[in-house]
Amino acid sequence: MDETEVLIAGAGPTGLVLALWLVRQGVGVRIVDRSAGPGTSSRAMAVQARTLELYRQLDLVDEIVGGGLRNPAINLWVKGERRTRLSFRDAGRELTPYPFVLIYPQDRHERVLVHRLEEAGVTVERNTELLGFEQDAAGVTARLRGPAGESVCRAAWLAGCDGAHSIVRHRLGTGFEGGTYQHTFYVADVEVSGPAANGEIHLSLEEGDFAALFSYDQQGNARLIGAVRDAEVREGHTLAFDDVRQRAIASLGLRIEKVNWFSTYRVHHRVTGHYRSGRALLLGDAAHVHSPAGGQGMNTGIGDAINVAWKLAHVLRGRAPETLIDTYEAERKAFAQRLVETTDRAFSFVVAEGGFADFVRTHIAPLFASAAYGIEPVRAFMFRVLSQMGIHYPDSRLSAGSAGHVRGGDRFPWTGYGGGPDNHAPLAAIAWQVHVYGEVAPALHAWCAGRGIALYRYDWCDACQAAGLVRDAVYLVRPDTYVALVDRAGERDTLEAYFTTRGIHPA
């Protein structure tokens, strides 16, 4: 019987990121996937700013950004005219070092993650299927079938990163409540030319039709998506790209030079009942699926992986009680439910049929979007939502305190705009740390040294105030770069009580 600390079923971005973060923390992993190799089509395209921030922890961000296309804006087109351009750079430049949506095809993305994992000494076991598992209080016994036949693996934890048809979720019986949209949608990787082939995102809204174009380089290679109307879906007929060329595509002035890949699919919106059952966990599409509106799916799965990775490492090393794992569901499920609701509303609006729906979509929506985006607080809010920087855990039992505009559970704000310090640089360490902007009391210095927690002090500056921080306050930051505790007084006893009451040993 093979043994490991964490058995990961599924080697998509979620499973690969989980493996990388665990290995970096010294946790033994085994990762299996039933496919013969990484995907060869682009599938998920968008890498959001929050994911790029987190990728700094493994020195991944420069390679990922360098391999993708920084997409600076979304353009809304109606009946062949561009009605508005929404700039990410204007909205996010004060919030993050990455004020853009990175378009980076999933197949390339996966190859980078696989290579990094191999450099760390872990190889994805391909053509290896999880058949089933049993669990007890100490771990999971899993049955696998690979090229050499069936085998058994004993693991302390099982992570189900095995997609929307997850065998882990099915065996746990945690359900998958939600529904399926009535429309059939198409997705194609194409080579295009024309005015919209300029490296930006373009959404074309027409009466009874829509199309979205995501360029992933400057040579005309792009992803095109849209809806297949019921009249085109006929019994016994296999859809091809010629069946779904509609006027929304023509309205962008696109010339389709070549179709490299084409597929149709139905869109689901579902969330599992529980993210954890005993020693088994669900992550990514195994836990939640939703419409592709906003490019949130892959990024949400990656966020799941990073959220739970440090908690698993703490528990496996005896630095926290097993109940710490319960905060994974408490934090991530609430976000997934909100995301499903939000993308459901957005997607339903885009595909709604009928005269009134067409009028609102083609006349009212572009005017409203342009006007709203011109208001700075609205622009920043919209960017926070799209970029996933707005994800926060205020109700988590790991979140405490507040000062200024920052409270426990928030993403730790960035102060690097306008000449301020890059306070996110130390977050590359997957570890607890304390930040102070101003003066540090000697007692706090001594407490951090005694606890083995890094203390970072920065001079107070205008950028600190603009980021919502408070002078001389203490910010305890979690290993996943979220704020755990804010204490305006900077008392070491408050910090000590935070860990003592939760049974956590930070170092």
UniProtKB/TrEMBL annotation:
<dbReference type="InterPro" id="IPR036188">
    <property type="entry name" value="FAD/NAD-bd_sf"/>
</dbReference>
<dbReference type="InterPro" id="IPR002938">
    <property type="entry name" value="FAD-bd"/>
</dbReference>
<feature type="domain" description="FAD-binding">
    <location>
        <begin position="3"/>
        <end position="342"/>
    </location>
</feature>
<dbReference type="GO" id="GO:0071949">
    <property type="term" value="F:FAD binding"/>
</dbReference>
<protein>
    <submittedName>
        <fullName>FAD-dependent oxidoreductase</fullName>
    </submittedName>
</protein>
<keyword id="KW-0274">FAD</keyword>
<dbReference type="InterPro" id="IPR050641">
    <property type="entry name" value="RIFMO-like"/>
</dbReference>
<keyword id="KW-0285">Flavoprotein</keyword>
<dbReference type="GO" id="GO:0016709">
    <property type="term" value="F:oxidoreductase activity, acting on paired donors, with incorporation or reduction of molecular oxygen, NAD(P)H as one donor, and incorporation of one atom of oxygen"/>
</dbReference>
<dbReference type="Pfam" id="PF01494">
    <property type="entry name" value="FAD_binding_3"/>
</dbReference>
